[in-house]
Amino acid sequence: MKTYTEINEKIASKKAVVLTAAEIIDYVDKKGLEKAAKEVDVVTTATFGPMCSSGCFINFGHSTPKIRITEAWIDDVLAYSGIAAVDLFMGATQLRHNDPANLDYPGEFRFGGGHVIEKLIAGKELQLFALSYGTDEYPRREIRTTFTIHDLNQAIMVNPRNCYQNYNVAVNRSNRPLYTYMGMLKPNMGNVSYSSAGQLSPLLNDPLYKTIGIGTSVWLAGARGHVYAEGTQHTSDVLRSINGVPEEGAGTLALTGDMKEMDAEFIRGVSLKGYGVSMAVGVGIPIPVLNEEILKYTTIRDRDIKAQIIDYSYDYPNKTGKTLGSVTYEALKSGKISLMGKERETSSMSSYEKALKIANLLKGEIEDGTFLLTEPFKKLPVNQKMKSLFVKDGRS
Amino acid sequence: MKTQKLLLTFLKDSVDKPIVYHLVKDFDLITNIYRARITAEEKGSLILDITGSEENIDKGIAFIKEQGVTVDDAQKSFRWDEAVCTSCGNCLTHCPVNALHIQDTATMKVIFDSELCIDCLGCIDNCPYGACQSIFQE
Ligand code: SF4
Ligand code: SF4
Fold first, then answer.
1. What is the DSSP string of B97-114?
2. What is the C-alpha to C-alpha distance for residues A335 and A343, in angstroms, rounded to an integer?
3. Distance (Å) from the C-alpha of residue A53 to the closest C-alpha of chain B?
4. What is the per-residue pLDDT across B94-104, written as a single tens digit (0 to 9) for each?
5. Can you list the domains of chain B with their CATH numbers?
6. Which stretches of chain A score pLDDT less than 50?
7. Is B96 on the interface with A (CB under 8 A)?
């Protein structure tokens, strides 16, 4: 048994033993759970992939004369301005003004909010265009200027839903191509698309939220961020198998971090043909090895993690709840799975390679004594169901 | 007889020259055009195979260069930018020849083998990060 304080003391004196969630599997196999739990202090987990529920709040400071912004565009992408005078919110999936979207189906969606945020973090110059109706103390009616992240007072990323615990595997049973957030799905199940870092993924290594909770310090694209709330659509009452690992979507995290500390390698604008724009986010989360039970959860491996195969031509949009069975990440990562009597090629939306890189970067920071752990001050809900929107007819 | 694949880039002043016609007529070469594009700025690109004797191929290429047309050694229009690639793997099922493929399942790193690439451009629309590009892209 170890405490957060003890682990942090070891980290501070650069003596902590840290392994990635990939390395820990063989280590525990070799040493046994009991011995490994004594030796290892922290296991690092990570994920990198499109996370649509992402965005940022930025503050510009005041111009002379002052403006109270009521409409704003950054590089022609609409920013939400229904908050204080020079505060804006940029959402990852916002399209650029005049993007034809799917009018010319399938649309290309080359640039949007996610790309703006990537440019900001990369330190590139962006254009602000803003309007106002003008007030006595904020008389300016219009502003057009360029800026970089260094000119801003704050640039704080706020992602209401990141790190989906597990995710659907998408196929297309119809006879025409589908353009989805899981990529282009070929007709007649011509390909299979999945999206999870599997054995490296944070919430698959802490399936019952014993250490990851509200207040947990996370590595958010290189910045020291934290979990500020349960993620939107956090659903913990789901189908679970070995070690309580969910076989479907399940838990999520709401994350925040300072964009001025971030590295643009890990925040990337995403263009998904026929679907829209999004943003890929890189997250690393340390798991303190407080006891054997917690260590055991981190030894989960791809062959023991299953995901549900869903038909995105009918069952997904119509919410039928039907699945075509389940498949392991080991099989998915091999490049081919057998489904309905046929071999089918697989591909991923989430990058295991980048996740592995993040898990190792975080490991390095903890070994160097620069990343300390925090104990969550509130647990994530464990028996929460997902509500559906009931569409009432008529008007009231 | 041998066959060579060429990527030609025409600039504004050579775009209207009947180069392929001369390759056939003056140098006795068999041509097979894969892809051609002329942009609004009157810059043209052409990918073709030429088949003929070694001597005639050399003469043909020399002739093309005399016309102010660039002949690309890479022989392909497709470019993969490793620095931009995130190894997400979304392109993998769209590459018919596994030119884009996974190095190994331990790292899951996506790598590109230019030798295998047939320049079909199937990956371009399926790369969410813009790592796959071609001069033939719209
Ligand atoms: S152009 Fe075609 S062959 Fe070449 S890498 Fe892309 S999909 Fe593969
Ligand atoms: S889709 Fe693009 S970013 Fe993803 S692996 Fe292929 S080339 Fe790399």
1. T-SEEES-TTT--EEE-T
2. 10
3. 17
4. 998 999 999 99
5. 2-72 (3.30.70.260), 77-138 (3.30.70.20)
6. none
7. no
